[in-house]
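Teaching note: in complex prediction, the entire set of molecules is handled at once rather than each chain in isolation. The prompt given to students was simply: 'Predict the structure of this complex.' The entities are:
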Amino acid sequence: CGKAKIGPSILNADLSQLASECQRMMDSGADYLHLDVMDGQFVPNLTFGHPVVKCLRPKMPNVFFDMHMMVAAPEQWIEGMHAAGANQYTFHQEATEDPKSCIRKIKETGMKAGIGIKPNTPVEVLDPYVDLVDMVLIMTVEPGFGGQKFMADMMPKIQYLREHFGHIDIEVDGGVGPATIQQCADAGANMIVSGSAVTGSENPRETINYMRNVVEE
Ligand code: DX5
Ligand code: ZN
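The expected output is the structure of the full assembly:
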């Protein structure tokens, strides 16, 4: 169903070697990088913020950085992420009172805007925002940790978005790998986040290619 994009998540990679792990993913044929930001409030875990992105950017000037902002009050990091060189700012509907204003602020910087939902959030909450954003994100695990089990019962959310909103970019994130990619493709996802399945693969290039072929079939 059209052009697939594969965006590895380096959450479960060797974070002491962040730049080389990111480069390894790009050298393996990744289309973009999905960078997971956690603040210990919106999710029960911590990763990194815009100061780290700022250091990473000069090492890979042309790579598309999709920032997955698993943070409370996502408005507060828009400017910092933009200044650090982020390309897309994907926040959670559950994290803010005013998603429309958050989208507006993101777009004002020139970044692309994405909006996502956690597994317990019904997909219909996204209706008012889909036409305002560049991408919607359907989580297929409870956000916070890499390497969790894929929740197949989230697929109807992706089907709903594909049916009602046509050619939008739909990203799927959590437990996605060669064993679960077919379901994501069938449902209509075209932006594929895959963490441990790619970073832990003996042959990341093959794993990425396999998933891309399944989606583009
Ligand atoms: C979960 C993150 C995901 C996840 C991806 O909170 O948003 O990006 O770590 O990793 P895997 O593919 O291992 O679930
Ligand atoms: Zn993520």
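Point out the following to students. Strands lie at 5-8, 33-38, 65-70, 88-92, 112-117, 135-139, 169-173, 191-194. The chain has one domain: 5-216.
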